[in-house]
Design goal:
Layout: H1 3-18, H2 22-27, H3 31-47, H4 54-78, H5 80-83, H6 101-122, H7 125-145, H8 153-162, H9 164-173, H10 178-201, H11 203-209, H12 214-217, H13 219-240, H14 249-270, H15 274-279, H16 283-309
Helix pairs in contact: 3-4, 3-9, 3-16, 4-6, 4-7, 4-9, 6-7, 7-8, 7-9, 8-10, 9-10, 10-11, 10-13, 10-16, 13-14, 14-16
């Protein structure tokens, strides 16, 4: 083989190695976040007091998932500059050079339009419009505006992640009542302590990227106390939801146990010092963050269990 042929083969192999794979494009959709969107939307759909045809239900969740993925792609497109700086995100498809920013934007816009139109056709236009508003809120209000301008970014912006169960409910019923907004409030109040715990042991990332997370603007001590306050309010809301139309004995049991554990973790975090944090590498904060993932899953799982058992006279308080 000549040197020219060898060099051409090497360049071709390198080009292929650098090309984006299906996995890279799928990563643009933030599959972990999408899984939470899908699950909470599914709970909202099934908890609604209106039976939904399985095909319609499948289509509704599919298009909500696509809408969530579209939001993720547009978020990565806009945040490519800071993702390149942060250790937690520098391996994402755009900072790593696997996917071009323009590609991500095009994919995000195309999937946004597809998901909104198809959800409207499959269920009702109220649900489709609500999905469109959710995508707008996450991309424009949170990503483009709040994230880089205020330490309340995750508080206000958390509404975007709290809308999916409402969308699921609206897809099933075409209307709103108190119950979907209780599910919204549960996710909305859970979001700040969840992300602030992450920010406590990832603060250097936000410092380097210039993102005004509460840990950066007000310090770790203030963040710890904010976590405690929000956790207390969350516990009151979560336990109170037990006595609503989506609650019941199963949910009440989960709410009491999980909120006791969550309050304990928040109390431990609030009484720590900078020296404590550096000494044990933020073990308490990491444990609280992991618990927060289980917290939301079990609460929505309990709501789903109550809804599925209700036709048999076993769910709810009836």
């Amino acid at each position: 083989m000549s040197d020219a042929s060898f060099n051409a083969s090497t360049v071709t192999a390198q080009t292929r190695a650098d090309e984006a794979s299906f996995g890279d494009y799928f990563a643009l959709l933030k599959p972990r976040v999408m899984s939470l969107v899908v699950f909470t939307a599914l709970v909202g759909l099934l908890a609604a007091p209106v039976p939904v045809h399985p095909v319609v239900g499948f289509c509704a969740i599919l298009f909500v998932a696509i809408g969530g993925g579209a939001s993720g792609a547009l978020n990565m497109w806009w945040d490519a500059d800071i993702d390149k700086v942060m250790k937690r995100t520098k391996g994402r498809p755009i900072p790593s050079g696997k996917v071009q920013a323009g590609e991500a934007m095009a994919i995000g816009l195309a999937l946004s339009g597809l998901s909104v139109i198809m959800l409207g056709l499959a269920t009702n236009w109220f649900a489709g419009a609500f999905l469109g508003f959710t995508i707008f809120f996450y991309v424009v209000v949170y990503t483009m505006w709040l994230k880089r301008s205020t330490p309340q970014n995750i508080v206000i912006g958390g509404a975007a992640g709290a809308f999916p169960p409402v969308i699921g409910w609206v897809a099933a019923t075409g209307s709103m009542t108190l119950e979907p907004w209780l599910m919204f409030a549960l996710t909305f109040m859970w979001t700040p302590p969840h992300f602030w715990a992450l920010a406590l042991f990832m603060r250097s990332d936000y410092d380097d990227a210039g993102v005004p997370m509460l840990t950066v603007t007000h310090g770790r001590r203030a963040t710890r106390w904010h976590i405690l306050v929000y956790t207390v309010l969350l516990a009151l809301l979560a336990v109170g939801t037990s006595f609503s139309g989506i609650g019941g004995p199963i949910y009440l049991t989960v709410a009491v146990v999980m909120n006791a554990l969550f309050l304990r973790g928040a109390w431990q975090i609030s009484h720590r010092t900078e020296d404590d944090s550096e000494a044990d590498n933020f073990k308490v904060e990491r444990s609280f963050f992991k618990l927060s993932l289980l917290y939301l899953f079990l609460h929505f799982g309990a709501i789903l269990a109550e809804a599925l058992l209700k036709p048999y006279g076993l769910g709810g308080w009836s």
